[in-house]
Amino acid sequence: MGRIALELLLRRIILAIPILICVSALIFILLRLVPADPVAMSLPPGSSQADYEAMKQALGLDRSIPEQYWIWISSLLRGDFGTSVFFRRPVIDLVATALPATVELVVFSLIVGTLLGIGGGMLMFAWRGTIGEQVLDLGTTAIMAVPEFLWAILLILFLGVAVPLLPFIGRLDPSVSLPPSVTGFLLLDSIMTGRPDVLGSALTHMVLPVIALSIGLAPLIMRVLRSSLIETIMEDYITQARLRGISERQIILHHALKNAALPTISLIGVQGGFMFGGTVLVEMIFAYPGLGNLMVDAVRNHDLPVVQVVGLVYCVLVLAINAIVDVIYLAANPKLRMA
């Protein structure tokens, strides 16, 4: 199993190289077609034409697009991600600060959405053919009809303003100081440095964004798992298990659920990639200092070095999630390992 998983990961890494090249070229070219002048936006008021030309040459924008792309790719391969035109800081520092916040948000949202989806799917399957299943089915349809950003606004209005139970701005309370950075991940750093006040504040600030993101994932998992379980219990090996006197609960938990979970695993992988994109609006609404907020600020100020790197980081995250899901799928499917 370990050797097969390693081979699968290596294969995914090799396939990711041309994908990253294509994505990076697409992002780079499209940004240069946008009718905006990053040089003019980065210069202070009252700058002369000579200042404009000097800045343009410093940014490499006086060269052709293929030359600019080659310079950028060559710099990336050397570990030089460039300097932000707007923030005046190395892009790698900005990404390293914002990325852990987004990863924590997505990981918790995936966990919460998956647990709710599996629990709800099992409940819908247990209530199949009853009014309870119809109520849950109607509820999931209504939930999926509301986009994530609207859920975020509704949660703020009800649980942040009308009934002020939870904070909805930022990542920490203003009175809480940041712990020393060990891993870059706030939750881990607060645990490693013995700061329960930071951990509690960070978790409470994550509740509403996590609900806004996970509430769109759970209904999809519920529906797919319910449908898979219904198909699985019609299989011959389930009938044979019943004939051997195995209880219905053991059949579902130890036999049917293993096979029914395979489509659900694939769905979680696909939705996990989409969730990184969904954090952009949610982070903006909650003023959460993650990668999405950084991307919006960079786009607003036409900060090309930041937009290019953040777009590439999103691509890497999606590819990484797909690779992890492939390994999990491999571990859960013996037929795939034999093939």
Automatic annotation (TrEMBL):
Subcellular location: Cell membrane
Any one annotated GO CC term: plasma membrane
Membrane topology, from the record: Multi-pass membrane protein
Family according to the record: Belongs to the binding-protein-dependent transport system permease family.
InterPro entries referenced in this protein's UniProt entry, alphabetically: BPD_transp_1_N, MetI-like, MetI-like_sf
Keyword Transferase: no
Major location category of this protein: membrane
Keyword presence, Transport: yes
Alphabetically ordered keywords of this record: Cell membrane, Membrane, Transmembrane, Transmembrane helix, Transport
GO biological process: transmembrane transport
Pfam families: BPD_transp_1 (PF00528), BPD_transp_1_N (PF19300)
Name of this chain's protein: Peptide/nickel transport system permease protein
